Structure of Acetoin utilization protein AcuC:
Amino acid sequence: MSARTSVVWTPEFLGYQLSDDHPLNPVRLDLMMELSRGLGVLDDVELIVPEPATEAELTRVHTTGYQTAVRSAPDAPFDIGHGLGTTDNPIFFGMHEAASLIAGGSIAAAREIAEGRADRAVNMAGGLHHAMRDRAAGFCVYNDCSVAIAWLLDQGYERIAYVDVDVHHGDGVQDAFYDDPRVLTVSMHQHPLTLWPGTGWAGELGRGGGEGYAVNVPLPPGTSDAGWLRAFHAVVPSVLERFRPQILVTECGADTHAEDPMANLELSVDGHRAIYHALRELAETTAGGKWLVLGGGGYALYRVVPRSWTHLMAVALDRDLAPDTAIPADWTARATTHTRAPLPVSMSDGADPSFEKWGGANSERVDATILETRRAVFPLHGLEPDDPRD
């Protein structure tokens, strides 16, 4: 029997547009929804329209002073600070409304699970994981991931696992819960020596009572499907099985792809599909099937993100698409109104995402990272870092 899955969506999500030429362009969401519809993934799915997050809901994560700055920034005659008005985070009209709607979307998805209407819930506009308590960062104004997790904690959840597969470190979420043992944050990302924000070292483990509940897997540039999946399976299942979360929250940025212009990992859409299958399985085996799915980064707007996230939507809905599924002609016609770049003809890059499981030997390029992370965090959970069975 398929899990019950809720999908949160409104065209108003497309209003989160930082500027006309900003790399975080909402066209990626529009084309993802159109591709999902064109391939029948959303057939008979009643979309849930969210309300904006309230001030009280945002205050679980963001200071009132910062919220005031976000609201007033479009009309402020001076530098308002808080990371606003930068190249990464330009000020735009309706910024608070657009950002709070996305945060409200992630709360709505969390509420579907918490109130028993769904086992899984999706907010593909979410995943703005860099925003900090009192400042914008990395294209993110409000941290909807943290807001949704904080809302779940207020509902009585005691063990929430957050797994971030974006190419950039999930720094804002880690920071929000760095001393909280109720939230396990796991981030798979390009090595901080080589990519912004420069955090996410294996030795970042949490603080105080939260020590051991921050897990970081910094991957070397050039890591491909096989290496990424080898590292993931060598670390993530073991810590999730030991933590036993009541719900799995995932940030599923698609910017690990080889064509993404913002970073230097070398994954394929086929590798992304394998990641989403692994996350679904972990939700089933470690979190009682409870899975909150959020989007994230992704800047190959036409060739990659729509396909990757359509696979994600299909996996969340148990409507898996074969890799060789053809792209509908109507979608291609729509996409060509936005770009002259060659467009894909199928839901695959023709890549083989198979990998060899880590076996304790340091024989592959990512194995130094695997051992560094396991040796840093596994003993804090009673696991043997050098035992490939863990």
User: Anything to note?
Assistant: The first strand starts at residue 5 and ends at 7. Residues 329 and 388 are 47 Å apart (CA to CA). The chain has one domain: 5-381.
